[in-house]
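Technical annex, item 7. During the second reporting period the consortium partners agreed on a shared format for inverse folding records so that results from different sites could be compared directly. Each record opens with the tokenized structure and is followed by the designed sequence. A conforming record, contributed by the partner at site C, is shown below for reference.
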């Protein structure tokens, strides 16, 4: 049995209306998320000391820098104008959605020197000897396969390249999974062949009174 023409037309109108509503909802959600990211990052600028973290990378225009665990690009978007058109940022993350938002934000700001890479927990998919520096901020505690990942990072760096890691130090007796000890990271770096050149045990105190540390290490 076939539907009568007026039912087919009504069905088509309802379907069309639902499709338009769904499209509006998706566009609204994307715009809202972009605005929230900007607001959260403006607040973060007040306590994260991004300038100090970027200074530790010791990079200049023309350099190639990897933001490993970029998220939606808090640091990638600060690095892009620093490195200029002759340099470039490689933003690596496991989450395609974070990289999607970073792509939109990159486009909105008109940057052309940012490349997005979907990594895997054990492999950031970086070409060998291609980077001057690698930044791992607020991400090391999430990395599940640190030794093998650091070996990839080591291979991705040019001779004399550096890696900067910043993260939260566990408070005494804390079992918070969003923290990792500075000394643990230093041991991991040395195990991967890096030379640790700087340890800042107390870089800053975050909004939840948590202490952040910073490590700088270089390849020989
Ligand atoms: C807490 S967010 C921090 C993002 C960014 N670094 C920042 O400071 O805003 C941690 C990010 O690291 C990513 N991540 C965790 N393990 C990773 C890995 N092995 N390789 C690449 N990204 C990873 C997560 O998907 C997440 O987006």
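Designed sequence (site C submission):
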């Amino acid at each position: 049995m076939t539907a009568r023409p007026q039912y087919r037309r009504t069905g088509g109108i309802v379907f069309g209306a639902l499709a338009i509503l769904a499209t509006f909802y998706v566009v609204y959600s994307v715009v809202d998320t972009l605005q929230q990211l900007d607001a959260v990052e403006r607040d973060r600028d007040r306590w994260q000391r991004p300038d100090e973290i970027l200074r530790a990378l010791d990079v200049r225009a023309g350099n190639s820098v990897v933001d490993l665990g970029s998220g939606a690009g808090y640091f990638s978007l600060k690095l892009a104008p620093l490195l200029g058109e002759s340099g470039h940022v490689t933003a690596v993350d496991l989450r395609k959605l974070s990289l999607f938002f970073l792509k939109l934000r990159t486009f909105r700001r008109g940057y052309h020197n940012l490349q997005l890479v979907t990594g895997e927990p054990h492999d950031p998919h970086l070409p060998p000897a291609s980077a001057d520096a690698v930044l791992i901020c607020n991400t090391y505690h999430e990395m599940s396969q640190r030794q093998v990942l650091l070996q990839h990072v080591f291979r991705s760096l040019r001779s004399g390249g550096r890696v900067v890691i910043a993260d939260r130090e566990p408070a005494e007796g804390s079992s918070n999974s969003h923290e990792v000890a500075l000394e643990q990271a230093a041991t991991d770096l040395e195990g991967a062949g890096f030379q640790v050149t700087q340890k800042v045990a107390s870089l800053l105190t975050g909004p939840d009174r948590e202490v952040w540390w910073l490590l700088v290490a270089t390849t020989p």
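The chain has two domains: 1-46, 49-218. Residues 68-71, 74-75, 92-95, 98, 119, 121, 124, 137-139, 142-143, 149 surround S-adenosylmethionine (CB under 6 Å). All partners now use this format for quarterly exchanges.
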